[in-house]
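Researcher: If only I could read backbone structure tokens as easily as an amino acid sequence. Walk me, if you will, through where the backbone shape changes along the chain. I have put the entry right below:
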Amino acid sequence: MAGRRLARTIRTVLVLAATAALAPATAAAGPPPKVMMVLWRGCEDACQGFQEYLRSKDASVEFLLRDVKQDATQLPGLVEEARALAVDLVVTWGTTATLGIVGEYDKADPDRYLTDIPVLFMIVTDPLEARVVEDLERPGRNVSGTLYLVPEDVQMRAIRSYLPFDKLGMVYNTNEVNAVISADKIRKVAAEQGFQVVAREVPNDAGGKPIVDSLAGLIGELGEEKVDLIYIGSSSFIILNREVFTRAAVERGLPVAAAGEVAVVESDALMGLVSRYHTVGQLTAARAEEILYGGKRPAEIAVESLSRYSFLVNMDVARRLGRYPPMTLLNIAEVVKAPQESR
């Protein structure tokens, strides 16, 4: 009976894909449209998926990749460059980059932010909480985009179907708007679902940058607090330092659950209910196609999410921790790093 209830819970979480396919893009006569991509930490899977989608539709597009390498001071210059180059569309990656390009919806000074060029965002934790748009159905400004995070309440229920827990640990970088929003959301879900959150903020150095060398110590503090597992929400800092972070957790026997795929696939997080970044990039490119070739305005395009999530399980870490998933979960989970692939 418990197994059947577990299977029903997970099947409810993992809904089927239903993204409509659009007709092939048709380029108008003249030069190809220019798409500037403002990236926060390089051209990762979402960026690649975006480009691959448009290329697969035989769309002739000039991609201008601009990686700010987590330096927000570069964003005003990219606003000026986008105007100087008369780009047809700007695509932003992440909450900080998006706010640096378009500003908050009710404080978008046209002298500082893009208001005259269409903008699409992706990998933004919560565009409503961050005030990127006022309404998901009708953004109402020259900005739209896609959602990528599985709702936190759904994530917590899915994680508990694998490992029941009463005390959850978090480490987050207060310099990232998205990380603060993510931590606040988990605290709200904890109050609703009846578990405790133990959170630690990453300290900054004299220059205001988060200290990487502090991560192992913060994991140690969470271990001393006897948390049942550690959760990685939305955080570029933690993801960039995922090896250090997840290794320290596993060495202490602490499982890590992640909101994004990278920590599970490329380091030692145990599990994650995620939207695949590559597919998020493709969905964003489908919205770009509507703007570039379908004559739509971002203000008319709803901010949408994927309709399919992936429950990832890192079986190498499961073996090392002795925390194997229930068979009912394995029937629908996507297994990565099987034991024979362990380092």
